[in-house]
Design goal:
33% of the residues lie in helices and 25% in strands. The protein is an alpha/beta fold. Strand 1 (4-7) and strand 2 (10-12) form a beta hairpin. Helix 5 packs across helix 7 (229-241), helix 6 (200-210) runs antiparallel to helix 7 and helix 8 crosses helix 12 (371-387).
Length: 392
């Protein structure tokens, strides 16, 4: 694929990773990803915004060669993570006079990773500008979106926001722009859930900051460019500001069937009361799908048998995941069974200290569920429906 023109003097020169299925050896990538890099050719100077993952450095170098870029004056390092900065050494080897433009915190991280020598850095303050002649770059500090050193770059004359990881999506595609909004929406929501949601309250501030700019295009570091910026800005506004919805997320596992019977009964009881339930059998679940469901859920109900006195390990992981992702969930409960005792409820409650939630009475039974246990599940369903009555 050749360099792709965005506007006069502005080109996409990144790499599409069709085969990658795991990010950071943690995050599932069902649709691959892209590492977006951009060349801006001003009348006096040329800037490269971001590089690519080191495994694809040859693709970036080839695109720059095809474009005929003979001199890069500035390399804008919006973010120090290696999928953005990993090809810095190769770019600097070919353009040794280039300055690496970044925040002071980003400089320190890049030095720690030995990706650039100290004498090549040009650190910038929030709101500082850099002239390329007939084009002006403005730098917007956006710490904790999703690392402490992140910044965004705004190209004033063309009204393009290079948003780094903010507003991005893990999606391999030949589309330069967002042609299929429904597909990009799901990819962007997964990306938000897995990467950005833990910083939701900080993102609220940065979203307000971005909305002060006149933006014609949003060019993220992953996924297609948004030629209708309001599409992704409205989605983020919903995800970070709106109240949770009338949804229960129910991750569970069942070893011998007792917990499954309880789960099925609770799902039916909630459904009858008009509550949407998203069910995840943790023995087969894509953990990314679980993360997506947490974005909007008002309630999480965790279902688990007792294993060696505690919750099933898969359930422990799901509870830990919910805790670190910090969704806007308001209520949590636990259902499950045991044979000879344990401290499962206390253990799971201790795993979610970062969730600002009300704990609803758990239903944890001995053996197989009996008539009184089903009544307790009905009572839990009624309590959840009452808590949700004013939610969409």
């Amino acid at each position: 694929m050749k360099p792709r023109k965005i506007k006069d003097g502005i080109y996409w020169v990144g790499a599409v990773d069709w085969d990658r299925r795991l990010f950071d050896d943690l995050i599932p990538l069902p649709d691959g990803t892209s590492y977006n890099a951009y060349i801006i050719q001003g009348s006096d100077k040329t800037a490269l915004i971001d590089t690519v993952d080191p495994d694809m450095s040859h693709i970036l170098l080839d695109r720059l060669k095809q474009l005929g870029v003979e001199c890069i004056d500035y390399i804008i390092a919006n973010h120090a993570e290696q999928d953005h900065s990993g090809t810095l050494p190769q770019i600097l080897a070919k353009h040794p006079r280039a300055h690496v433009v970044c925040t002071p915190k980003c400089k320190n991280i890049l030095l720690d990773m030995e990706l650039a020598p100290e004498d090549c850095f040009l650190t910038v303050d929030d709101g500082e500008t850099l002239s390329l002649g007939d084009k002006t770059l403005e730098f917007i500090h956006a710490p904790w979106v999703h690392w402490p050193e992140t910044m965004l770059t705004y190209l004033r004359e063309d009204k393009i926001l290079f948003s780094c990881d903010f507003l991005g999506s893990h999606l391999a595609s030949t589309d330069l722009f967002t042609n299929d909004e429904s597909r990009v929406y799901e990819a962007a929501k997964r990306y938000y859930a897995e990467i950005m949601m833990p910083f939701r309250k900080i993102i609220q501030k940065n979203l307000k900051k971005v909305k002060e700019y006149d933006i014609s295009l949003i060019a993220p570091s992953h996924g297609p460019i948004y030629d209708r910026p309001e599409f992704i800005l409205e989605a983020y506004n919903d995800w970070v500001f709106s109240e949770p919805k009338n949804i229960v997320v129910l991750p569970y596992i069942s070893m011998h069937g007792s917990t499954r019977v309880m789960v099925e009964h609770l799902v039916d009881a909630l459904t009858e009361k008009g509550v949407t339930v998203k069910l995840f059998n943790l023995s087969v679940t894509d953990i990314g799908e679980l993360a997506i469901s947490l974005v909007d859920a008002a309630t999480i109900v965790i279902g688990s048998p007792t294993v060696l006195g505690g919750a099933h390990p898969n359930v422990i992981y799901a509870a830990y995941l919910a805790n670190v992702l910090r969704p806007k969930t308001k209520f949590v409960s636990i259902i499950g069974s045991y044979s000879w005792g344990g401290r499962m409820v206390q253990q799971l409650a201790e795993l979610i200290p970062k969730l600002e939630v009300e704990i609803l009475d758990p239903v944890v039974i001995k053996g197989s569920p009996k008539a009184e246990d089903f009544e307790a599940l009905d009572k839990l369903a009624a309590s959840i429906a009452e808590k949700h009555k004013n939610l969409e």
